[in-house]
Amino acid sequence: MKRKSYTDNRAKYILALSVFVFVALNLSMVQLKVEKKMILAERFWAGAGWIEIFFISLYGAVVAYFMHNPANVAKWRKYTWGLFSAVFFSQLILGISGFENFLMTADKLHLPVPAMIIGGPIYRYEIGFMTILFLSTIVLSGPAWCSHLCYFGALDNLLAKRKPEKGKIKHKTAFKATTMVLIVFGALIMRFAGASYTTAAISGGSFGIIGILVIVLFSRRKGKMMHCTTYCPAGTLINYARFLNPFRMYIDDNSCTLCNVCTSHCRYDALNRENIENKKPGINCTLCGDCITSCHAGSIKYKLFKFGPETSRNIWLFITVSLHAVFMALARL
Ligand code: SF4
Ligand code: SF4
Question: Which residue from 289, 322, 328 is spatially nearest to 81, judged by alpha carbons?
């Protein structure tokens, strides 16, 4: 027993230290190599960027330390993801209120609606910073964008706080296909019809407002992230593109008793009866880890190549928490 707790402690210190070093190194590279001042504090006082890098790295280490315990994940994920979103939107509000230091590119402001990550490049016919950030997260940590990194999904997670309703969401795939078609063809039509930026912005903004209504009207009531699982085209793209990344979640055939208790612990609608029978969560799974401790038999596990479940989970946490901390420092419009 003693040995186990020693091992656990050692693993969480190693995880926390690795996140600290990785985040500090990456942000230091940005501070030293990128000509534009990317670290916010540096824009106000010369040299203050280094202090910010220290504190963001420390933040990443603390998050990793506590999330190492699967029982803490749902609570820590909710608060840290919420904080990430609050930082992102506060910078946007300050930026458009005239404090331009809080914006990445004041002259090229994009709408903070995740669907625009798909629609924007099609309409503008160019790939921007946000698209590159988005695609790199899929390659590095699969669907973690939708559980730790998206400024919008955090709202869905915060409001879907009731115990998830039983049964799977009906017509989920049809809803997802419809919004994806709307965004892709809408952007194409606007591009070829020469629609103005104002028209495109109003259309994108309306799509975002409907998304907020979906969160307020449905996610709150059902306890499931209705916006992210049925409406957001960026989430839909991730559902399929996530297979570019080798991390997986599976249900251990040898120990699962088919009790179905875990079904009421997934807000992404990825743990329905048929998923449990198939021994793997549904396509909506974001690897968030909220369900792990709900299983009395410990049957829900991470998998990365031939590594064991704990090592796989630790590697996933290292990548995801590091990205979360780096984005906290850099993600702004
Ligand atoms: S589904 Fe869309 S809004 Fe939800 S977390 Fe993913 S990208 Fe963000
Ligand atoms: S199945 Fe588990 S890990 Fe996957 S989204 Fe649902 S709660 Fe998160």
Answer: 328
d(C-alpha 111, C-alpha 204), whole Å: 7
| Residue 302: φ, ψ to 5° | -85, 155
Cβ neighbourhood burial of 300 (10 Å; 0-12, 13-18, 19+): buried
Compute the distance between CA of residue 307 and CA of residue 224 in angstroms, rounded to an integer: 31
DSSP 66-126: HHTSGGGHHHHHHHHHHHHHHHHHHHHHHHHTT-GGG-S-GGG---S-TTHHHHHHHHHTS
**Tokens coding 145:** 């964008």
Q: Report the distance separating Cα 53 and Cα 219, nearest Å.
A: 36
Q: Six-digit token pair at 108? A: 């090229």
Q: List pLDDT tens digits, range 129-147.
A: 788 889 999 999 999 999 9
Q: So where are the chain's domains?
A: 2-330
Bridge partners of residue 301, in order along the sequence: 250
Which parts of 142-232 fold into alpha helices (H)? 153-159, 172-192, 197-214, 220-222, 226
Q: At what angle do helices 233-241 and 129-141 cross, to 10 degrees?
A: 40
| DSSP 8-state secondary structure symbol assigned to residue 168 | P
Residue 251: enclosing H or E segment and its boundaries? strand 248-251
- 238, 286, 324: which to mutate for ligand 1, most atoms within 8 A of CB? 238
Residues 187 and 206: their CA atoms lie apart, in Å, by 14
> Cβ distance 177 to 237 under 8 Å?
no
* Residue-wise pLDDT tens digits, 289-330: 999 999 999 999 999 999 999 999 999 999 999 999 999 999
Which residues form ligand 1's pocket by a CB distance below 6 Å? 114, 145-146, 150, 152-153, 156, 227-228, 232, 234-235
- Best probe residue, ligand 2, of 77, 163, 288 (max atoms within 8 Å of C-beta): 288
